[in-house]
Design goal:
By secondary structure, the chain is mainly β. The chain has one domain: OB fold (Dihydrolipoamide Acetyltransferase, E2P), CATH 2.40.50.840. The protein is 5% helix and 35% strand. It has a five-stranded antiparallel beta sheet with strand order 6-5-4-7-8, with helices on one face. Strands 2-1-3 form a three-stranded antiparallel beta sheet, with helices on one face. A hairpin with a 5-residue loop joins strand 5 and strand 6. The longest helix is centred in the N-terminal third of the chain and has 8 residues.
Length: 147
């Protein structure tokens, strides 16, 4: 699923990911509208964010695993004050911490799409939504919406 529009208002410095390094494969997958989570090839433990070493068994044999993009809200907050001048008209907005059950319950942060004053029940089911940003160095962000 794609958003079709950008969640953040124009004028905000683009939160563009680095096209190289530990997260490169993750960001490449988001361009294909796929959600990947890092997984140890030795002990099969999931982890997030990306690291060179497994947090569980200390193996350096790390890989990536595709997940459905369905999760549940673990926590959230609703910022009311802009942290950047371009957000002056963009507040409030909702930031969620999403737990991914099919990936060992690792948690990812993102924006919750929809009414910024909506009720946000802990445990509510959400799904990943991909927000494409085209240009000289295209990238795709992962946002969330209630399922």
């Amino acid at each position: 699923m794609t958003t079709g529009t950008h969640y953040l208002p124009p004028g905000l410095p683009a939160p563009a990911p680095s096209p190289e390094g530990l997260g490169a494969e993750f960001w490449d997958a988001t361009r294909r509208h796929e959600l990947l989570v890092q997984r140890c090839n030795a002990c099969r433990t999931f982890q997030w964010g990306p690291e060179f070493i497994c947090h569980h068994c200390l193996s350096f044999d790390m890989g990536w695993h595709r997940v459905s993009g369905r999760g549940r809200i673990y926590s959230w907050e609703r910022p009311w004050y802009p942290v950047h001048p371009a957000l002056r008209e963009g507040v409030p907005y909702i930031v969620v911490l999403v737990e991914l059950p099919e990936a060992g319950n690792v948690r990812m942060v993102g924006n919750l799409l929809g009414d910024p004053k909506q009720d946000v029940p802990i445990g509510a089911e959400v799904e990943a939504v991909f927000e494409d940003h085209d240009g000289p160095e295209p990238y795709t962000l992962v946002q969330w919406r209630l399922a």
